């Protein structure tokens, strides 16, 4: 009987610690980048972001409130890693999408007709002195980059191949998001 009580207490402690670890393992910010994409005169690059968090429609009083919406920052960088355009969406709701357009003429660092750019999306960027430090929730996002023919509005190229870059901030702790730091990464 004594062993059963000890086993039950140990099991309860493991579950409690596991729940605590899960509660703290919520990412608070993350940076995602596309690869380099070329575009030319009469083309527009469009960086699209979709908030993949589920939309909850239950309004019962017993359900916990929805976490706050997240903030996303969309950026374009040229081949020399200069930021050429950015936009901040402060209250990015679940199930919604946003985009940032960049016309070829605005990339002045490259003088040839063709310019190379990449898109970057930051979920919950660090607050700026001008921005309000309102509480934010985490959102899972899907990022695409398309090149649009400006005269016709047709998409001529699309990529959804993205990479998480830099450390992932999880519950106030920095987690290594590189393949070497992941347990699911292939080992040589």
Q: Would you give an account of this structure?
A:
The protein is mainly beta and 188 residues long. It has a single domain (31-55, 62-177), classed as Immunoglobulin-like (Sandwich), CATH 2.60.40.4070. The chain is built from 1 helix and 11 strands. Strands 1, 2, 4, 5, 7, 10 and 11 form a 7-stranded antiparallel beta sheet that branches. The chain has a 4-stranded antiparallel beta sheet with strand order 6-3-8-9, with no helix packed on it. A hairpin with a 5-residue loop joins β8 (141-149) and β9 (155-159). Residues 9-25 and 177-188 have low confidence and may be disordered.
| Radius of gyration of CA atoms, rounded to a whole number | 21 Å
Overall CATH architecture: Sandwich
Shape, please? globular
Question: What structural class is derived from the secondary structure elements?
Answer: mainly beta
Q: What is the strand content?
A: 35-45%
**How many separate domains make up the residues?**
1
Characterize the biggest β-sheet.
7 strands, antiparallel
What can be said about this structure in brief?
With 188 residues, the chain is mainly β. It is built from 1 helix and 11 strands, in the order H-E-E-E-E-E-E-E-E-E-E-E. A hairpin with a 4-residue loop joins strand 4 and strand 5.
């Amino acid at each position: 009987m004594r062993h059963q009580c000890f086993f039950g207490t140990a099991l309860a402690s493991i579950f409690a610690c596991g729940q605590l670890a899960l509660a703290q393992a919520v990412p608070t910010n993350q940076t995602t980048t596309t690869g380099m994409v070329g575009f030319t005169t009469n083309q527009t690059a469009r960086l699209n972001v979709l908030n993949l968090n589920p939309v909850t429609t239950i309004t019962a009083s017993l359900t916990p409130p929805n976490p706050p919406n997240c903030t996303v920052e969309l950026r374009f960088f040229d081949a020399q890693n200069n930021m050429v355009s950015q936009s901040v969406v402060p209250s990015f709701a679940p199930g919604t999408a946003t985009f940032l357009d960049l016309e070829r003429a605005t990339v002045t660092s490259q003088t040839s007709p063709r310019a190379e750019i990449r898109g970057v999306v930051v979920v919950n960027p660090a607050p700026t002195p001008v921005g309000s430090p309102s509480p934010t929730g985490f959102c899972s996002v899907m990022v695409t980059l398309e090149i649009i023919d400006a005269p016709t509005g047709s998409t001529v190229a699309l990529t959804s191949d993205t990479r998480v870059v830099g450390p992932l901030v999880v519950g106030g702790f920095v987690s290594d998001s590189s393949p070497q730091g992941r347990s699911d990464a292939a080992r040589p």
